[in-house]
Every structure is written in structure tokens, then in C-alpha cells.
Amino acid sequence: MVKKPVHVTMIVLFAVMLSSTIFAQNTPEEFSTYMDHYILEKMTGNHIPGSVLVYIKDGRIFYKKGYGFADIESKTPVTSDKTVFRIGSVSKLFVGTAVMKLVEQGRLDLNQDINSYLKAFKVPTNNKRPVTLKHLLTHTAGFDDLVLNRSTLNKEDRMEFGQYLRQHIPDIFIESGEVTSYSNFGVNLAAFIVEEVSGTQFHRYVKENVLNPLLMKNSSYMPLPGLMKNKATPYLYKNGKYHVFPHDYMHDYASGALLSTGSDIANFMLMHLNKGQFNGKQILIKSTIDMMHRQQFTNYPSFPGMAISFIEGKINGKHVLWHNGWHAGFQTLLLIIPDYKSGFFVSFNSDDDAHGAHFHLDEAIRDRIMNKYYPGENKPYEKKSNETVITIPDSIEGWYRNNRFTRTKFTKLAVFLADSKVSILGDDTILYKKKKYNRINNLLFEPEDKKDQLAFEISENGIVKHMFLKSKPVKTWDRVPFYESSVFHLTLLGISGAFFLAAMILTPIIVYRKSKAGDKSNLYHIRLWKLKGAIASLNIVSMLVIAWVLLASAHISFKWEIPLLLNLILMIQPIIFVLWMILTGSTIVYWKQRQKQLWEIIFISFFIFACLLYFYFVVYWNLTGFGI
Predict the structure, then answer these.
(1) Which of 186, 289, 391, 483 suits 31 as a labelling partner, its CA being 20 to 30 A distant?
(2) Whole-prediction pTM value?
């Protein structure tokens, strides 16, 4: 009998042990052990009543499970087959899929001017290049953001899809195809083009051409009775209690109102992971799927960008496509790894007061899955040998603002205090959000932990105009002048607020003293102080109410209603301005009087100037009452 060498035996034994380990790591039971406790622990710590997780591996459903409660009061458990979640902006993937269905039929062209397809209305633009479907589906059309009155709490008040879009066409603030700026309107416009070209309402087109072929029987854009019966209750956790969100009816429903279950979404993912096939049928042809999954735009050459509707990314060196979604009381993430025919879907039925810790729990679950089952490292940036090194432009230093915000409505205030500062520390180092970034190329920087990258784009005159983060492919930060920065406007508020408070305190004291003196010559002076006190009081109340309402209502984004109190405060701003003009004129008259005190002249002059600073703030942030 021939004995095998010891080292051969050891190799065989190691191979058997390794294969056993891999096999153990690839069973639903092992996945359950690894994920269930983690998810339940995070749900408890972040006040999430219920969630669903679906994991697809090697082109098949590997694991699906519901956690917690769909409804706290009735103790209804979440199930992956029946519990309906509102998946928010993950709905945009269905818009892209519907568009591509018509593209492969030759009825739509991604590079055609969208106005050639629109019959009910046209989109005005002064751009050098026309807006195309590709721009709409990659968030590069350049539309201003809209958040007001996108839905209603009364089903009967919901506007017809095309009518709503026609009445709410936003301005285009940047050349189409230049940079990304996330746009719900752009995606809704793409959906309406499907409606125009197909002759079928968009929700019906998706039902007939996407949902039904994928056997997504528990999915719909419309709040059908059968779905609403199984819909998870959306919660807001605030002040130690769960509050129920009402169901709202979106006018622009295509970009964010799809109702679905974990199992139904799994079918949609399987179709994308199996090159357009599902259940033996070809829903989309392979070349269409390949186009949808291929990068169509990127803000910076070495960064991930946008595919068709999907956001692109690299995690542990693996090419991933994903989209997350938010709707009042719901958080969702869908991610696929095409090269591995794998992916997962997770959704929760809870929101917190200010999008806090659990707003990123979907990302924590993503990282837990990716780090264990798809480990690896992202490929480091490779500098080209022929690249010319330039000096860091001084204009890199300054304030940057996410370009997704409303420029014409009071909701512009949402980006107040959201600016980020970039500082130059040395020849090859900058500071961003208290973290040092070292230069790895001319306008490309990386932190020491190498977990992200920061890039800048300069204009033809050498001035920096945009900043990009590798981890945020769909976002762009514009460099803003100092006089538009949040810190400048906060300074304006501080100065004006100080004078308003001083006037509120001094007015009753001075009025009392001069009234008590009984001198009729003081009557004009008393009226002047009363007017000043009234203006100061109205401005202080306006500041406090606007701050309170915005903070208290951040979770609904004013999608279905504008609080009455905020409406009133915004409407009185023009009245305050008229009172200020009266005060200014009256002050000029007072200056001409002989009996006056120097300190009062100085104070009232600074008070008038403080009002002017405040009005600049009001006008800049569209708080005049005309931006409702």
C-alpha cells in the first residue's frame, strides 16, 4: 500500500474544510443566523416596527423574510409575500424599465429631444443642447427641484398626471448633460412620455407590460383596496411615541408611489439579473438590459455615475447598481450585483423626526451583506504617467452647496445651514467636513482611510465651480460666493435679530417714560418707537415661527400641505416691508427736528439698516409670501 505524502493529505484536508465552510456560508440557515439578530437589534435600537429583506443569489431567490410588525396596534406581522410597502424612489427603476421597453420597440429614442414626443405641452429651454430621455433618466436635465404640493390627502383632489406636470414645469438652471442634479420631475416627465407615445396611462402601461409579465400581483401605482388592506402602516417616531402618517395621493406618482411586496420586487430583480428573462419569458432583450446597466453619465471620469435609472457604484471592487427610496414613514433600498446575479431588497415602515440614525440602516445592512459574502477591495486610483501636475487652485477653498434645491420657493430654506466648507491646508492637502484629504491627482483628493474620494471641476477661466464625491454619484455640489453662503446669512440674522430684540426691550420703557412726561412734543417720537417696536416684534415672531415650522415639518417636506401658520407668516412679510418704509420716512422727518438725542439717532439708524439686512435674507430665501 502506497502512502500519500503528508503535505498532500494536509492540502486535501484543507480543501475539504474550506469547501465545507463555503457550503455552510451559502445556506439560507447560515444567512438567517448572520442577518436576523443584527436586523432585529437595529430595528429595536432605531424604533423601526417592521421590515422586509429579500436576498437573491446566483439568479434565484435565496432568502426572504419579514421582521417585526406591519401594524403595531393590531400586531400584524410583516411577511415578504403579503405585506405591502411604499417603495418611494425605487419606483424610478420601473419608469426606466417602461421607457426601455419602448426604446427596444423603436418607439422612443434616448437621444431625441423630449419635446418631439410631448403633445400636451412643451418644456421651454434656453439650453444649447435639447433635453433628452437620457438626461431625464440620468438626472442630468438640469431641472430646479420641486417639493411643494406634490400630493394630497384627499383622493378626489388628486390631479391628472399630465395636467399636474403641465402646471408645474420647473426652470432649467444649468445646461443639460453637464452635471447631475436629482430630479423627480425629470423622471415623471419620462413616465408621461411613455403615456403620450403608448396612448395608455402610465400606471396601466406598467401594469400590463412590466408588473403582470413579472407576476407582481401585489404591486401597483394605484392604492387598490386589496393592496391597502395589506399595506404596512407608516410611522413617525417622535418624542418617544409612534405617530401614524396618513396615506397621501401623489399627483406626480410615477417617480415614487409604487406599492409592492418583497416577493414581488424579487421578481423584478430576477428579470434584471437574468438578462431580461423571467419565468421563461423575455421581458426585455439582453441588449436592452446591458444598456440599462451600463454607465451613461458620470460627473468625474474615475467615479461611478448613472446608468439608466440605476445609480452606479463600486463596493469591495464589485460593480453594483442600486436605488434607494424614501416616502413619509418608509425607507427602501434595492441593490443588484449583475456580475454575480445577486442582490437584495430591504424596506422599513418607520421614519424618525429628522432622518437620523436609521435613515442609514439600509446602508448598514448593505455593508453587512457585501462585506461577508462579496469581500474585496476597491481598485486604487492609478495615476497616468503623462498627467501634468498643476498647483491647487485657490478657488477650491470656499463654500459648497448641493445643487438639488428649490430656487424659486420658500423651501429653498431647506439648504440653509447645509453648506460645506473646503479649506486648503497645504500644497497637497485640503480639509472637508473636519477630515483631511490628500491629493492623488490634480483635482482628485482622498482621505487617509481611503473610504471615499473628492473631485473638483474648474471652468474655462480656471475657477472651481463644482465638487463631486465618489460615494454620491447622483449629487453635485456647486461652489457658492461668500455672500450666498449660509454662514453669511446666519451672520445677517444674528445682527438683525440683536437689534430687533433690543428694540422690543427698549420700546415699552421709552414709550412709558415719554408718556409719563406728558410733553405733547413727544407724541411723534412715541409713535416712532411704537412703530419700531411693532416691526421688531413681527420680525422676531417671523424668525421663530419659520424656524419652528420648518423643523417640525421636515419629515413631510410640505408634499401635501403648507401649515397655515407658516402661510400667514410668509404673507405678512410684504406688510412688514411697508411698515419699514414708513419708519424710514418718519425717521428722516425726526432727524430734522431740533429736539432729539444722539443715541436714539444712532440706534434707529442701525435698526433701519438691520431691517434692510433681514429683508435681504427674506428675499434671498423666497420668504416674501410670493414663493408659496
Answers:
(1) 289
(2) 0.91
